[in-house]
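Exam revision sheet. Question 4 asks you to relate a sequence to its structure. Input first:
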Amino acid sequence: MKSRLSSKMELLLKLLSIWCLIGLTVSQDITYEEHIAQIQACPKECRCPMNFPRAVYCDNKNLKNIPKIPPYTWYLYLQSNMIEVLSTDALQNATQLRWLNLNRNKITSEGVEEGVLSAMTHLVHLYMDDNLLSSVPSQLPASLEHLRLSRNRISKIPAGVFVGLDKLTLLDLQGNKLMDDAVTEVSLKGLNNLVQINLAKNQLSTMPLGLPPSTTQLFLDGNNIEKIPAGYFKGLPKVAFLRLNHNKLASSGVPKNVFNISSILDLQLSHNQLTDVPLIPSGLEHLHLDHNKIKTVSGSGVCPVSVEDLGDSLNESAPRLRYLRLDGNEIQPPIPRDVIMCFRLLRSIVI
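Answer key, structure tokens:
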């Protein structure tokens, strides 16, 4: 009786495990047969979770070469290894990849084999931060939406490398060796729907040319930029977040109305050489001017509308500034009354 009950219980557990496996495969859009094949093909150096069958974890394994990747992989984690070559042989089955993380390896531009990335026709996220690339990789798949290449040795963006990448919305190139002649309208051609571009901590001395009109977030911190051409932002009608901290901007190189753009919400100009507060656009909500050389601030000089026209109550024309940082300058408190009268939505002033 006990043995029969035990056999039934064992059968029930087997059926339950199979049912759970089928349930997992359905929820992850993978057939039972594919799930089994995926698990069986899992490289011995890696981890392939039963409850996440589309993912393969090969991170932090001191790998020098990429192992053969199972054919039904969508998410591949290879970060924090010693990989030097992005091999077509190892990745020949990885044509269904959506997410590829290669951060913190030793991959050079010469180590990215021809055609290895273009074969990944479903790839959405490509992360190659902290490698040894000297150039933006060529033959990128048209499906790409996020491309992260920060902290490499990139000094070149090949002409036409972004042509056809209409889905790319995020490009991170911070911490490289890009100079002015590398960031041009020719090199950036094809970025028709880009939202965020990060060019911080490069070697730029002028504002980059050729940025797409779709740009909403522009990060240029830690360069050597000294001036902003008048009318520069007319070609960037959607820019809302602009960071120019840690540059060499002086007030003589910043035209008074250069930031007068209706779309801008957050403007950061900390750690520069400004002596005057630029005109603040009505829609701006956050302004960082700390650690400059500003001595005075007055409502008449910075308010985008006449204080008299505002009256005693808030209205649609009232400036939207909520946060103002002025510490690290030569301004002595208190803040003048006409500044407070102008920016009535201010919730925080750091001085």
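Marking note for examiners. The helical segments are 2-27, 32-40, 299-302, 307-310, 337-342.
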